[in-house]
Amino acid sequence: AQALRESLAAWTHLLPAQATLLSLSKGVELGTGKRMSEVIAEVTGIGPERIAVLSGPNLALEIARELPTATVIACTDPERAVAVQQACTAPYFCPYTNADVVGCELAGAIKNIIALAVGMAHGLNFGDNSSASLITRGLAETARLGVALGADPMTFAGLAGLGDLVATCSSPLSRNRSFGARLAR
């Protein structure tokens, strides 16, 4: 996420005039506090209706192994969301659409912080109750922040919210959970 602005600036001139850009980055830009779709819009000058984001319980190794998963394609333009959905669908990869770009991006960014905390609790052998408490309270706080920033509260109960949070906080394939555990040790 922190390299998006610089990377995108280098090849923006190559984008076709009506291209839809799909953000896979989950984070918030340091210094500006901008979500990735906001950075994309600012750097490229394109409107938000041409920017889609992907968010959900998508552990890369499992997708590479073609294990079944679902995800969310969020875009303010429902027709573009469906076009991206159709382009990404595979027998093992089921995308759903959502208009709540703000909620999907915030859920995807904040779950990484919660996963670090859960990893630390795991590394300190605090047990499953502690992890469940961190996940539950983290989700509640994420939803409150999201609503304050204009997100749909229901987004946080779906794949981009709870789904991504559970996968990131519980899987040993999660970089943030694993790093949190190593940090605590």
Textual characterization of the structure:
- The protein is α/β, with parallel strands linked by helices.
- Helices cover 54% and strands 11% of the residues.
- The protein is built from eight helices and four strands, in the order αβαβαβαβαααα.
- A four-stranded mixed β-sheet has the order 1-2-3-4, with helices on both faces.
- β3, α4 and β4 form a beta-alpha-beta unit.
Ordered list of secondary-structure elements with their pairings:
Elements: H1 4-11, E1 21-23, H2 36-44, E2 51-55, H3 60-64, E3 69-75, H4 78-88, E4 93-98, H5 101-123, H6 128-148, H7 159-170, H8 175-184
Parallel strand pairs: 1-2, 3-4
Antiparallel strand pairs: 2-3
Helix/sheet category = alpha/beta
Low-confidence stretches: none
Say what oligomer this is: single chain
Strand % is 5-15%
C-alpha Rg, in Å? 17 Å
Order of helices and strands: HEHEHEHEHHHH
How would a textbook summarize the main sheet? 4 strands, mixed
Query: What is the typical, i.e. mean, pLDDT?
Result: 96
Strand order of the largest sheet: 1-2-3-4
Work out the helix count. Answer: 8
**Strand segment count:** 4
Q: How would the global form be characterised?
A: globular
Report helical residue fraction. 40-55%
Span between N and C termini? 27 Å
Based on the model shown, name its key terms.
8 helices; four-stranded mixed sheet; 185 residues
In a nutshell, what does this entry contain?
The protein is α/β, with parallel strands linked by helices and 185 residues long.
